[in-house]
Amino acid sequence: MQPRAFEQHIAVFGESGSGKTVLLSSFYGGTQEPQYLKRSLFHVLAEDIGQGNRLHKNYLGMKDEGTLPLTTRFAATSYAFKVQMKDGSDPAAAKSRPGCVRWSGVRLARDGRVA
Question: What is the CA radius of gyration of the chain?
Answer without folding.
Answer: 16
